[in-house]
Amino acid sequence: MERLSVHPESLRRVRPDEIVTIQVEDEIAQKISTQTQSSLQAQGRLFIIDHSSLANLTLTAGRYAGACQAFFFIHPVSGDFLPLAIRPNNGSPLTYTPLDSANDWKLAKILLNSNDVWHNQWYHLAAAHFSSDLVWMSATRAFSDAHPVWGLIRRLGVNSFAYRVAASESLVCPGCDIEKNFPWNGAEAVTYSQQVWQSDGKAWRRNYLSTKLVRRGLLNCKYGPTLKFFPYYEDVSVIMHAMRAFLTDFVDAYYENDDAIAKDVELIGWFKEVAVEASIVDFPSSISTRLELVDVLAHLAYLISILHGSLNSNSLVQYSGVLPMHPLCLYHPFPVEKGVTSLLPFLPDLNASLQQIALLANFNQGPIINTPDSILFLFDEPSFKGRVNDKVRAAAERYTSTLQKFSDEVGKRKLDSDGLSQGMPFVWNLFNPETAPGILAA
């Protein structure tokens, strides 16, 4: 269930006509799922995570990491979302399943988790930072200081570009934190970030939240059953519904009708600046309706307030980077046969563990709780409120009121009598609006 909450950007459903490279033996697949792998795929019940491209990166000497491929499935009887198999690759010829020994299966899960943490960081850098930075910079070139849309972009992207100095001086530089903690150094991190930007992150409308989830077969799938639980979307959809309502009111407060949009030369100039000069793929080069503006602003808000926070910030130290199941790096060659007796040689020692905890804790945003930098009070920031009109201030109050109710619900979450919350064996409250960053927090 981590793939439907903590690590939301790696998973997709396998199409019935797709050719896959992992083949789980029929007998094993039937013991786990009651059906063969091919039957699961034909019914649209099979899902995959594919980090095999990581094998193309150069590992630091003495560090180890998989380039994992993993299958998950929707159980034909219970409807539960469960793991089927993990193949580590990158030095391991094995394919692990839940039928293996406890140590073998746990090692496989650790390898997959480690890959997901790496992918999360460099996908977030590309999809959240690169995209929002380009939009922000284009806005500085197109809008006058008093333009209301520029004021909104400035509020959302308040820390645009701020991370670049810290990243170059303490993260990706030779001998710095990436090289100290991960299996690949900073140069490899930059290379990988560029790769995921090109393959997944750079398109604008194609990566609208619902569009992306539908494309990956996680939402409104026409060739397979619905996920019984989808914690990430369950929470994010509430926030984005409130966000869209606010943005609709914001746009309506300044543009009486679509004709007003067409007459705003600064706004039209911004769209051209982003699409042509900044060359953001799939960003509309023209605009003629208020709805189009709401769509663009909603996606910008999603990148900054949702996507960024789901992969970075508080998630690292609270969920995605928690030891011992989520080490940033492994420290022993992978076995070529099953039957691991101890996991300790693979895991970080005390010093490496403390180093990982310290690094990830730096990204935690505890001080933003109930401040204007939180999702809850994002539009309650004094300078922003002082520049907008009464209609927008009223919309901001409605936004906060709506998300306060959701925050109260999230705060009451606990494990039920079956030891589950949202179908998971842990309580996931990353998107409590009181504590989740609404800005580019790190």
Automatic annotation (TrEMBL):
Asked whether the UniProt record includes Metal-binding among its keywords, one would answer yes
- EC number of the protein: 1.13.11.45
* Matches recorded under SUPFAM superfamilies: Lipoxigenase (SSF48484)
The leader peptide range reads: none
Q: Taking every annotated instance into account, which residue ranges of this chain make up the domain Lipoxygenase?
A: 1-442
Look up the record and name the cofactor or cofactors this protein needs: Mn(2+)
Annotated keywords: Dioxygenase, Manganese, Metal-binding, Oxidoreductase
One Gene Ontology biological process: linoleic acid metabolic process
Per its UniProt entry, which superkingdom is the organism in?
Answer: Eukaryota
Pfam families xref list: Lipoxygenase (PF00305)
Q: Name one GO molecular function term.
A: linoleate 11-lipoxygenase activity
InterPro entries assigned to the protein according to its UniProt record, in alphabetical order: LipOase, LipOase_C, LipOase_C_sf
- Catalyses which reaction(s): (9Z,12Z)-octadecadienoate + O2 = (11S)-hydroperoxy-(9Z,12Z)-octadecadienoate
Protein name, UniProt field: Manganese lipoxygenase
The record lists the organism as Colletotrichum orchidophilum
Instruction: Give the lineage.
Output: Eukaryota, Fungi, Dikarya, Ascomycota, Pezizomycotina
